[in-house]
Specification:
The chain is elongated. Strand 2 and strand 3 form a beta hairpin. With 336 residues, it is of the alpha/beta class. It folds into 3 domains: 60 residues, Alpha-Beta Plaits; 68 residues, Met-10+ protein-like domains (GMP Synthetase, Chain A, domain 3); 179 residues, Vaccinia Virus protein VP39 (Rossmann fold). The strands form 4 sheets. Strands 13-12-11-14-15-17-16 form a 7-stranded mixed beta sheet. The chain contains 8 helices and 17 strands. It is 22% helix and 34% strand. It binds S-adenosylmethionine. The site of S-adenosylmethionine has 20 residues, from strand 12.
Length: 336
């Protein structure tokens, strides 16, 4: 197809191309061509070419550029993909299909350095997953969520981008000056934005690598002065186990308990950390028949006679497995 091109000596080619790009005159749908000592740069409209270039504009055949495509256009079907910074996560049981999807992602217009497939469930106390690395090799990335940046290595720490909306819901409830304790903080996706809202945040995690990232993420987002990272078992925030002086008992205006499956084991600690009036965000995974009952009963039992317990919100966060939900209870503890 014949299109208008700026013809220029090869030595000036890059400088002229840059000027044309600045003037939005470049035709990105057609290839630049080189012929002997001349270079032919397709332009959208001869009138858009800056006059001071004194350009020689010719009509010339130009090949159409291969436009980058989406993975779905390359594959002919919509793959299930999740983005985490410049990592793309594939969710595929069939290894061959996972590789096909990874190849398509890398060939597509998706900005991506690494493609991973889930190789295990989330496991162990530190809630970390194993991965098959299908393309690239770097499992560390910087992920952006609601205006905050989090550096993390998915092979070393827990992080789920799917919880972004839920985290934002909780963070929006935070008032300046309150004391919040994130009992299972990971790399800080609750703790850091809570500090941005003006809270003083104690953020604890058993995973030392997660706490190292949390410290970096607090600094990266300008709130290092309002986040106190603690590496270790959250139970040790109450009195410590070996006579050390960490003691956050009776201090919290807000507690975040994002350790579904076993948060109930930490309710005694939560009650000990709670101040006179404390909001608790309690995450749980339960059967659809009674998603909120077990958590509510466990919280009431732990609070005993010390606190009045008011359930303010019962929220289904997401479907977890067939007939099972990941839920959140927002509960207010008021000292009697
Ligand atoms: C489901 S992850 C949640 C992390 C973070 N809140 C988030 O939303 O990304 C639970 C975290 O609890 C930590 N953890 C498990 N047991 C703990 C304990 N006894 N004390 C403190 N942290 C613990 C794990 O290392 C893990 O990072």
């Amino acid at each position: 197809m014949s299109v208008p091109c700026v013809a220029v000596e090869r030595e000036r080619g890059e400088a002229v191309r840059e000027r044309l790009a600045e003037a939005d005159a470049l035709d990105g749908d057609h290839e630049i061509a080189v012929d002997c000592d001349a270079i032919y740069i397709p332009v959208v409209d001869p009138e858009a070419v800056p006059a001071d270039l004194d350009a020689n504009i010719v009509e010339r055949e130009a090949a159409e550029r291969d436009r980058p495509q989406t993975p779905a256009e390359i594959l002919g079907y919509e793959p299930s993909l999740e983005r985490l910074g410049d990592i793309v996560i594939v969710d595929e049981d069939d290894d061959e299909r996972a590789r096909e999807i990874a190849d398509a992602v890398m060939a597509s217009d998706v900005p991506c350095e690494t493609v991973l497939n889930r190789a295990s469930p989330i496991e162990g106390e530190l809630r970390v997953r194993q991965w098959d690395v299908l393309a690239g090799d770097d499992t560390e990335t910087v992920h952006r969520e609601y205006g905050h940046e989090f550096r993390l290595d998915v092979a070393e720490v827990y992080f789920s981008p799917r919880l972004a909306t839920e985290r934002h819901r909780v963070i929006e409830q935070v008032d300046p000056e309150e004391t919040a304790i994130d009992m299972f903080a990971g790399v800080g996706p609750y703790a850091v934005p809570m500090a941005t809202r003006g809270a003083d945040v104690v953020a604890c995690d058993l995973n030392e690598r997660a706490v190292a990232y949390l410290r970096e993420n607090a600094a990266r987002n300008g709130v290092a002065d309002r986040v106190t990272p603690v590496a270790g078992d959250v139970r040790d925030l109450v009195g410590g186990t070996d006579g050390d002086d960490i003691d956050y008992a009776d201090t919290a205006d807000r507690l975040v308990m994002n350790l579904p499956h076993s948060a109930d084991e930490f309710l005694d600690t939560a009650v000990a950390l709670a101040g006179d009036d404390c909001a608790v965000h309690y995450y749980d995974i339960q059967h659809e028949d009674d998603s909120f009952g077990p958590g509510t009963r466990a919280i009431r039992e732990a609070a005993g006679d010390e606190y009045e317990v008011a359930v303010e919100t019962e929220r289904v966060v997401r479907s977890y497995a067939p007939h099972e939900y990941n839920v959140c209870l927002d509960v207010r503890l008021t000292r009697v």
